[in-house]
Design brief:
With 355 residues, the protein is of the alpha+beta class. Helix content is 32%, strand content 27%. The chain has a 9-stranded mixed sheet with strand order 2-3-7-8-13-16-17-18-20. Strands 1-11-12-19 form a 4-stranded antiparallel sheet, covered by helices on one side. Strands 4-6-5 form a 3-stranded antiparallel sheet, with helices on one face. Strand 17 and strand 18 form a beta hairpin. Helix 4 runs parallel beside helix 8. The radius of gyration is 20 Å and the shape is globular. The chain binds adenosine monophosphate and magnesium ion (MG). Magnesium ion (MG) binds next to strand 13 and helix 8.
């Protein structure tokens, strides 16, 4: 699974340490109600899972079917991997003319601007041309991009050149394009979350490739929790964190998608100021009131790094766990996270330096 968090409880995918811990938690709680039930499917290039508290198990088929339908529709609308999607067609007429686009496309463009502004451009939905220069090409030894190619791509990056009206959108600069890779899954999770609520579910979790939003409780006496994975050892977890009700979580990291050039790793999240992949952190996990915000901010804060993220965390009340890029993994957390966190196997935790 992509992303640095695992939904809990789900014993099947856990390391030995947390597996034991969960068994203990679950067996202690099985007195208080049936186990949560879940169903999964593939969409948006990853795996989606809908989990309902046991007492609402009868709603699982409808919640899963509706979530699947909704996510497939969104994928058809927002994917840049489909030449016929509205967003691909919008990219094709960048700098030429505005295009009528559906409501969700306009909405995600508007939200992308909000998070672009909030992160002073560290989250930039138009960074695709630069990200592509860092993608490994099949059958070729990876090399650093040429400086002129970087300069040319960077000149096409600026989310403020996106204009949105009541019915249409316009990418004002020729050659620019948008890519919802850093925000689209979170947006999809929020729509699915709302849909599950509308179907009458109150205690559930929606997970799309590590973008997770919860509602209510796993059991009457058990909150939903997630496990933060060890970026340096995919099979291990570092901590378990209880989710605030209705909140969402997302993780950004370089440890699963990167290219290695001359012994150095370059990841898939690019700093729009420099054109170079962001460095310094192994991962950032963001807890926010909704999944769109968690998704966009995890990408944005990963670029900003610890020090420049602090004012944004203070301003928004969003909580976060930073894992610096040095081994063994340790956790730097916002003060609000401390009360909700159970550390595993002696992992070192401290409040964000400079808070
Ligand atoms: P995430 O896994 O949510 O952090 O999203 C990573 C994806 O977002 C990348 O694969 C790119 O498609 C895209 N991306 C990379 N850098 C940025 C950035 N600075 N702002 C917005 N999106 C980005
Ligand atoms: Mg993201």
């Amino acid at each position: 699974m992509r992303g640095g968090v695992l939904p809990l409880p789900d014993a099947s995918r856990m390391s030995a340490g947390i597996f034991v811990l969960c068994l203990l938690i679950l067996s202690a709680c099985s007195l208080f109600g049936p186990e949560p039930v879940s169903d999964s499917f593939e969409t948006m290039g990853t795996r989606a899972t809908v989990t309902l508290a046991g007492k609402e198990a009868d709603r699982l088929p409808a919640a899963t079917a509706e979530t699947q339908r909704l996510m497939r529709e969104l994928d058809a609308e927002l994917s840049v991997y489909r030449a016929d999607s509205p967003v691909s067609r919008l990219n094709a007429v960048a700098g030429v003319r505005p295009l009528e686009v559906p409501e969700d496309t306009r909405r995600v463009l508007e939200l992308s601007r909000v998070y672009g502004d909030l992160t002073s451009g560290a989250f930039d939905v138009t960074v695709g041309p630069v990200v592509d220069l860092w993608r490994p090409v099949k059958g070729q030894a990876p090399t650093l991009p040429q400086e002129d190619a970087l300069k040319d791509a960077l000149a096409r990056v600026d989310y403020r050149q996106i204009q949105v009206t009541d019915t249409s959108a316009f990418l004002a600069r020729a050659g620019m394009r948008v890519d919802f890779g850093g925000i689209g899954k979170g947006y999809a999770v929020d729509l699915a979350w709302r849909k599950c609520r509308d179907l009458g579910a109150g205690n559930f979790m929606v997970d799309l490739g590590g973008n997770i939003r919860i509602s209510g409780r796993a059991k009457p006496d058990v909150a939903w929790s997630i496990a933060v994975r060890d970026p340096f050892d995919k099979s291990a977890n570092l901590a378990k964190i209880e989710m605030p009700d209705e909140w969402a979580v997302a993780t950004s990291g370089q440890y699963e998608r990167f290219v290695e050039i001359d012994g150095r790793r370059y990841g898939h999240i690019v700093d729009p100021r420099t054109g170079y992949p962001a460095s310094g952190l192994a991962g950032v996990t963001v807890f926010a009131p909704n999944a769109t915000m968690a998704d966009a901010l995890s990408t944005g804060l990963f670029v900003l790094g610890l020090k420049r993220s602090i004012p944004i965390l203070k301003k928004t009340g969003v909580e976060a766990v930073f894992i610096p890029d040095k081994q063994p993994a340790e956790l730097w957390v916002t003060p609000g996270i401390q009360a909700k966190l159970t550390v595993l196997d002696g992992v070192k935790v401290q409040v964000l330096p400079g808070w």
